[in-house]
Amino acid sequence: MEVNIPFSWPSFKFDPSWTLFLDRDGVINERIVDDYIKNWDDFKFLPGVLDALAVFANFFHRIVIVTNQAGIEKGLYTHERLKEIHDQMMEYIQYHGGRIDEIYYCPYKADNDPLCRKPNPGMALEAKNDYPDIEFTRSVMIGDSFSDIVFGNQLGMKTILVGKRPGAMKSLNSVPDCKLDSLRDFATYIQSL
Question: 19-169: which CATH topology?
Answer without folding.
Answer: Rossmann fold (3.40.50)
